[in-house]
Sequence to fold (181 residues):
Amino acid sequence: TSIGSAAGGTKGGEVAEPMEVQEIEEVEIESTPNLIREPPVGDVPPTQHINQVMGWQSALPSEWVPIISRDSQRQRRQSPQGPFSDAYLSGMPSKRRKLITSTKPQGNLSQVISESMATALGAAGMSSGPEVDVIAQRAGQDNTLRAAYREQVRTTLRHNLNSNPDYLPDKYPNTAKYLKK
Fold:
């Protein structure tokens, strides 16, 4: 029988021709024990350590190696992504916006400090209970702590804006006024 009839026939009674295939050579894969080594002991720069452990340079064209090395160093040095602006968040789908804003502190300064204190006490191993609630509540009402929190926000904002090339005090006069306080 022909291939066409074995496969259930073809249109118009044509007989299907067998497909040509190439023989694939079997290639023996070399074992590469030198790619995975124990990390060296002592003070080794991170790039040198990665290069010794990974051994990836030999598998790439030599002109790619410095570019990839530079990119990997840049990625390690990158500062973490700052929070999204309210304008950016307002353009997101509501479900995604809720996920992102759920981690953002909500409420006035006293509530934010109280919630932060309760979270910190929980992380320190204190079980939640009336004692933790009282401590957190008192922390939120402490004027010294609130002033220190405001100053820390102002200092952090000042630092972030000084390192941001897009910030121009003339363009954002209210922010500049807030930072001068």
